[in-house]
């Protein structure tokens, strides 16, 4: 009976924690909600270590007819794992981003808004640094990309620089990126009247 009671109590605690997590902001970053110093250090270092092994930094290009250069460029940080509570812990501490079920009993935490990346994700990983050389390199490249994306209006040369940095960020997919980048540049070049044209 004692074992059964403990099991029920644990289950109720888990459901309560999950309910609390689900009331957090859904996507963007809300000023004054995230405070780096309020994250307990043991939690901060644990999240950083978890992201070192399970996290990803990448950039997407999505075709959009209403954009001057015809591409929407988005920087993304995400973490995927089967441990649902662990994934929601990122959302609870970062107070931004989204969590979704991606199948095969795995959950994905993702931050793809520029404001949240600038004011939450990057400051967090500057404070709680990665240990692996690979992730340190990826994070440094990712910061450069986010800095360029923060510049508006954006120039053709800056988009080319993002493509160059993305190639370094995904060195394991370099052949795929070469083909994609060629297609992206071909579409952009059709829109270029002169190199001073800018994207709103």
UniProtKB/TrEMBL annotation:
Q: Which UniProt keywords apply?
A: Chloroplast, Endonuclease, Hydrolase, Nuclease, Plastid
Q: Which Gene3D superfamilies match?
A: Homing endonucleases
Entry's Gene Ontology cellular component terms? mitochondrion
Which is an annotated Pfam family here?
LAGLIDADG_1
Q: Keyword RNA-binding: yes or no?
A: no
Annotated GO molecular function terms are:
endonuclease activity
InterPro entries in alphabetical order: Homing_endonucl, LAGLIDADG_dom, LAGLIDADG_Endonuclease
Where is the Homing endonuclease LAGLIDADG domain positioned along the sequence?
47-145
Q: What is this protein called?
A: Putative LAGLIDADG homing endonuclease
State the species of origin.
Answer: Watanabea reniformis
Lineage of the native species? Eukaryota, Viridiplantae, Chlorophyta, core chlorophytes, Trebouxiophyceae
Gene that encodes the chain:
orf200
């Amino acid at each position: 009976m004692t074992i059964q009671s403990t099991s029920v109590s644990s289950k109720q605690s888990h459901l309560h924690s999950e309910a609390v997590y689900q009331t957090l902001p859904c996507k963007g970053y809300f000023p004054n909600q995230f405070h780096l110093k309020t994250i307990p250090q043991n939690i901060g270092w644990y999240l950083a270590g978890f992201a070192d092994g399970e996290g990803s930094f990448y950039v997407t290009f999505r075709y959009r007819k209403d954009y001057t250069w015809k591409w929407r460029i988005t920087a993304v940080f995400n973490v995927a794992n089967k441990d649902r509570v662990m994934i929601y812990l990122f959302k609870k501490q970062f107070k931004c981003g989204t969590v979704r079920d991606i199948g095969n009993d795995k959950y994905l935490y993702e931050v793809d808004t520029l404001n949240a990346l600038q004011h939450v994700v990057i400051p967090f990983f500057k404070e709680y640094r990665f240990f692996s050389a690979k992730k340190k390199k990826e994070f440094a490249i990712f910061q450069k990309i986010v800095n360029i994306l923060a510049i508006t209006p954006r120039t053709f040369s800056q988009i080319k620089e993002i493509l160059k940095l993305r190639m370094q960020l995904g060195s394991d997919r370099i052949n795929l990126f070469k083909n994609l980048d060629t297609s992206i540049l071909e579409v952009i070049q059709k829109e270029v009247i002169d190199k001073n044209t800018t994207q709103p």
